[in-house]
Design goal:
Radius of gyration of chain B: 14 Å
Helix content of chain B: under 10%
Shape of chain B: globular
Oligomer: heterodimer
Strand content of chain B: over 45%
Number of helices of chain B: 0
Order of helices and strands of chain A: EEEEEEEEEEE
Distance between the termini of chain B: 37 Å
Order of helices and strands of chain B: EEEEEEEEEEE
Structural class of chain B: mainly beta
Distance between the termini of chain A: 41 Å
Structural class of chain A: mainly beta
Strand content of chain A: over 45%
Number of strands of chain A: 11
Radius of gyration of chain A: 13 Å
Chain lengths: 112, 117
């Protein structure tokens, strides 16, 4: 079954600290993997996209990694800021039909 | 900047009412999508459209219908609202997927939080 699982479900860290969010998938065939950020009361916004051949992609303080062999991705946030408080959603695109398989998200809370 | 707007941020309806949710995008995107988002679940696709007057069922189309009469506008209709349709509804748009893998980024509206009493 094609699934995307994210961990942890929620995370609370202090401002200025780093954190890493995990995404494991069983989607096949694989096309690409995206991380979205969803602020409370808003729609998701794309952060990064990674294809099979890419294993690292950065967007400012956000760095996504992809291990296509183990079917795992992570999103690392450096020097967290209060504005990083949001849900982070991992989504994998299937190569056969471009169907998107969405994870349930990780809710990140940054405390001052 | 891509802009996707949704007609209402919050909506309260009674069971059995007909509900219209509207979505408008200004980037001339071919694809438009309706999702619902519930706590603890990933986004679930209700319907999508890849062209004017074209529609495809997603994962959970039951109880919903859609209309796309113009390229920029995609409407979700709840024919007879029920309490289990209380949810956050998200509209998104994107460029076509086929043959253009990088064109699949979806741009979302702010969402409509619907409460059915």
């Amino acid at each position: 079954k094609n699934q995307v699982e994210q961990s942890p479900q929620s995370l609370i860290i202090l401002e200025g600290k780093n954190c890493t969010l995990q995404c494991n998938y069983t989607v096949s065939p694989f096309s690409n993997l995206r991380w979205y950020k969803q602020d409370t009361g808003r729609g998701p916004v794309s952060l990064t996209i990674m294809t099979f051949s890419e294993n690292t992609k950065s967007n400012g303080r956000y760095t996504a990694t992809l291990d296509a062999d183990t079917k795992q991705s992570s999103l690392h946030i450096t020097a967290s800021q209060l504005s990083d408080s949001a849900s982070y959603i991992c989504v994998v695109t299937m190569d056969s039909n471009y169907q998107l398989i969405w994870g349930a998200g990780t809710k990140l809370i940054i405390k001052p | 900047d891509v802009k996707v707007t949704q007609s209402s941020r919050y909506l309260v309806k009674r069971t059995g009412e007909k509900v219209f949710l509207e979505c408008v995008q200004d980037m001339d995107h071919e694809n438009m999508f309706w999702y619902r988002q519930d706590p603890g679940l990933g986004l679930r696709l209700i319907y999508f459209s890849y062209d004017v007057k074209m529609k495809e069922k997603g994962d959970i189309p039951e109880g919903y219908s859609v209309s796309r009469e113009k390229k920029e506008r995609f409407s979700l209709i709840l024919e007879s609202a029920s309490t289990n349709q209380t949810s956050m509804y998200l509209c998104a748009s994107s460029l076509p997927s086929g043959g253009a893998r990088w064109g699949e980024t979806q741009y979302f509206g702010p969402g409509t939080r619907l409460l059915v009493l």
